[in-house]
UniProtKB/TrEMBL annotation:
It comes from Falsirhodobacter algicola. Acts on leucine, isoleucine and valine. This is Probable branched-chain-amino-acid aminotransferase. One of its GO terms (molecular function) is branched-chain-amino-acid transaminase activity. It catalyses: L-leucine + 2-oxoglutarate = 4-methyl-2-oxopentanoate + L-glutamate; L-valine + 2-oxoglutarate = 3-methyl-2-oxobutanoate + L-glutamate; L-isoleucine + 2-oxoglutarate = (S)-3-methyl-2-oxopentanoate + L-glutamate. InterPro entries: Aminotrans_IV (IPR001544), Aminotrans_IV_CS (IPR018300), Aminotransferase-like (IPR036038), BCAT-like_C (IPR043132), BCAT-like_N (IPR043131), Class-IV_PLP-Dep_Aminotrnsfr (IPR050571). Keywords: Amino-acid biosynthesis, Aminotransferase, Branched-chain amino acid biosynthesis, Pyridoxal phosphate, Transferase. It is an enzyme of class 2 (transferase). CDD domains: D-AAT_like. Its cofactor is pyridoxal 5'-phosphate. The keyword Amino-acid biosynthesis applies.
């Protein structure tokens, strides 16, 4: 596989980053994941805009211009012959050499790394047919979940706990209500109404969420932005999550209780179709 690191395209075995890089030592880095369907980038403008916001919130500069960033995405998709899959992008603050809590001088360049992963069944993976089971898990992440940093230890611990419980994922819970999934936004469905938490610093502002809410409103679904509890999710007609690499994924069990009939529901199925069709059309 060919990867990109700081201006160079290299075989993955030859790509190198300093051990003093703040991304490595301090989790001082932000990332994005953009899906690729039929060789084209999905929701690219949204991911580009969120990256700029994450960087700005952390006073970090992007070593790549907007034009270069798109060019690298496309070049990696081409070189690695990605039909369906994803492009991972990470920008860290780099390092001045020694370990230091203080940021290095502005002249120190950040580290940009991009790579692809091939996911042949991205459009319709088995999990989307089956639906997934989630556990409830205390949301003990830091308070700026709106910034897409690489500090993913708590989500990893949540996924490990889910696996141990025979489940696939977790719904994070804070102050008695669901914030989001471990790497996704969370929703419940009641009749024709889609309920999801409003944007704040408590959740990542999902790019898939933003697109889906527009497409769902166009398709005459009602949208209510408010937080919901685990009990409410268990009693809902349906539940689902969204993310750039999962699109719309039905949730069939929440903390040991089946949701609805315990099978993927018709609204989640319909929303998945709507999202994939519209996102494909808008792909670049
Ligand atoms: N919330 C969290 C915590 C996430 O990690 C992700 C996926 N990166 C999302 C929500 C979904 O965001 P997006 O639709 O932009 O992938």
């Amino acid at each position: 596989r060919t990867v990109y690191v700081n201006g160079e395209y290299l075989p993955e075995t030859e790509a190198k980053v300093s051990i003093f890089d703040r991304g490595f030592l301090m989790g001082d880095a932000v990332y994005e994941v953009t899906s690729v369907l039929d060789g084209k980038l999905l929701d690219y403008a949204g991911h580009e805009a969120r990256l700029a916001r994450s960087l700005a919130e952390l006073d970090m500069r992007n070593p790549l211009s907007a034009a270069e960033l798109l060019e690298v995405h496309r070049e990696l998709v081409t070189r690695n012959e990605i039909g369906n899959g994803l492009v991972y992008l990470q920008i860290s603050r780099g390092s001045a050499g020694d370990r230091n809590f203080l940021y290095p001088d502005e002249s120190v360049p950040g580290t940009a790394v991009l790579f692809t992963q091939s996911v042949p069944d991205l459009a319709m993976p088995p999990a989307a047919e089956r639906g997934i089971k989630v556990i409830a898990f205390d949301d003990l992440r830091w308070g700026r979940r709106d910034i897409k940093t690489v500090q993913l230890l708590w989500p990893s611990m949540a996924k490990m706990a889910a696996k141990k419980a025979g489940c696939d994922d977790a719904f994070f819970v804070k102050d008695g209500v669901v914030t989001e999934g471990s790497a996704s936004n969370a929703y419940i469905v009641k009749g024709n109404r889609i309920i999801t938490r409003p944007l704040s610093n408590d959740i990542l502002h999902g790019i898939t969420r933003a697109s889906l809410l527009v497409y769902a409103a166009e398709a005459q679904f009602e949208i209510e932005e408010r937080a919901f509890t685990i009990e409410e999710a268990q009693a809902a007609d349906e539940a689902f999550i969204t993310g750039a690499s999962t699109f719309v994924m039905p949730v069939i069990e929440v903390d040991g209780k089946p949701v609805g009939a315990g099978k993927p529901g018709k609204v989640a199925r319909r929303l998945r179709e709507i999202y994939v069709e519209a996102a494909r059309k808008a792909a670049i």
